[in-house]
Write the structure tokens for this entry.
Amino acid sequence: MFDIIRKSPANWQVPPNLLDYDALCRSFDWASARRAMAGLPGGGLNIAHEAVSRHVVEGRGGRIALRHLGRDGAVSEVSFAMLDEAASRFANVLESLGVARGEAVFSLSGRLPAFYSAAVGTLKRGAVFCPLFSAFGPEPIRARLEIGRGVCLVTTRMLFQCKVAPILDALPGLRVVLLIDGEAGDERGQVRALPRLMDAAAARYSAAATSPEDHALMHFTSGTTGKPKGAVLVHDAVVAQSATARYALDLHEGDIFWCTADPGWVTGMSYGVIAPLVCGVTSIVDEMEFDAERWYAIIENHKVAVWYTAPTAIRMLMKVGAEVAGKHDLRSLRFLASVGEPLNPEAVVWSQRTFGRPFHDNWWQTETGGIMIANFAALPVKPGSMGRPLPGIEAAIVERTPRGIRVVEQPDVDGELALKAGWPSMFRGYLGEDERYRKCFADGWYLTGDLARRDRDGYYWFVGRSDDVIKTAGHLVGPFEVESALMEHPAVAEAAVIGKPDEVAGNTIKAFVALKAGHEASPALERDLMAHARRRLGPAVAPREIAFRDNLPKTRSGKIMRRLLRARELGLPEGDISTLESDEKK
Amino acid sequence: MSDEETIARLRVILGDIAPDLDVSTIDANADLRNDIGLDSMDFLNFVIAAHKRLRVDVPEADYGKVDSLAKFARYIAAAGAPG
């Protein structure tokens, strides 16, 4: 057990937004939180208005919304007024290209200012914004554009060339591709240069009169089986995203805030774009990938107050060592938070020692749209725990029964983490998959698929996943998507993938492959399979390790038992193998 | 060993980590993560493999100094690694 980290008001540079947890939980309700929103002048709710236009209308347009750090070291600032204008131009571009309200606009880009104006502009237009992870390979991109019915894609020339051009013919529904750095010479067919269109577009646009329940965002996530799922969030999500950012991230107006998440994931959108804008903070937007020295220099030079990052990055900082941190003045840091996978207690203790402040782990999912369970600035931190439910969120440990679920009242019992349905940022569907959506709920509770337990003090502790989904570097990877790509290789007869614990990434993906007759396992074939998988899926999703087997363990119904492969790989008990029909052969 | 020779050996190592890349044509000055598209795990594995095969020590704090093949080769030359 690790010692509880207690907080002292004497150390607070700024009093936390949430001081009395129990009192706030009692008094909080979403209707009041909703009243803090400006609403559209003619009625209705639109995230773009709450996030950006409102600040301009209320006289704060000159404040800095984004501080972009380019790869060449250049710093450029974007005020709320500038972002509002760019978003309006983008909304006009969409309208002129015939992108209708409710249609899906996808992005595939790194952290560029144009990404922000595209996101906000799409919401202004009343269309649905769907960011993709730019490290995806062509196949995950194609599958998501198809499932999500993307009509427009915003990307860069380079990403377009490498990843989109090869799949363009397979996407007849994709009517427009907008190149952020495109020039007139790049234009052919549906491919258009965005800067030229932006220059020609009008600088004003009245946000579409969306209602709180109109679709706003779509984020893809993975299940154990089947295709990726497009989780849909509505404009009302902004109510929860902003309230949770104030309580769980302790954002105060005027803060310098750095969310390091990639914009292709839900964190990068909910807390990289929407919540910080609504809360009126200045966001650091770093175009480059992780580098310890540079990261510390960013915190020092830009006086970052609130830092929201992920366990993989924190563990890399730990490897680099406290001495590197010690060379920088990091006293601007007021609040540190982590999300993506459970943060190991050693990392919490390390940050307390190194920065004088603990990382505050919090828990949520694509489907929840916002932070649900968190460690708070004013509350004690139990290292290794995900914390306590946000005000307005009712969490429970439940057990599935033949007729529904049973809520487990007693503490310290492992069970499935469930949330009482109905908070504003809850997903409203998986696009085109009503049955899979319905299966996520029972007796009015959303079943998260995560196993957890609650201790006597009401703190929740992550135990594991209830399915075979793999969490690698903070991202969920569905085994089916990886296995399908491997199966497309002419030598592969069967494939199964598992998560293998890794000290930096949490898990890495390992594939077990059985070959078709006439193919021999060899280092050359392993390399060829690896190259195939990486080309199709991208490095973040492809396996890092491939092992050959003559046969994979299967149930009577022919289902490959990933659970058994994983238990054997990790030397864990094999558990119930009564359904095993055909065993693994090495 | 000249920088060119080191770069050639780094290309082979990179090809083992990311066999999907055509390593022979990669610009030696391109940033391995931001231009070539290695993710952070790839990059970590690349540095670890280079450590084993070229016997060069790269402390984590120096990862920013080896983010292209050319910079990596200069780093190795400066470190006086036996190669």
The interface with chain B takes residues 71, 135, 162, 287-294, 312, 316, 319-321, 323-324, 473, 504-505, 508, 527-528, 530-532, 534-535, 538-540, 544 of chain A (CB under 8 Å). Chain A has two domains: 9-19+32-450, 470-582.
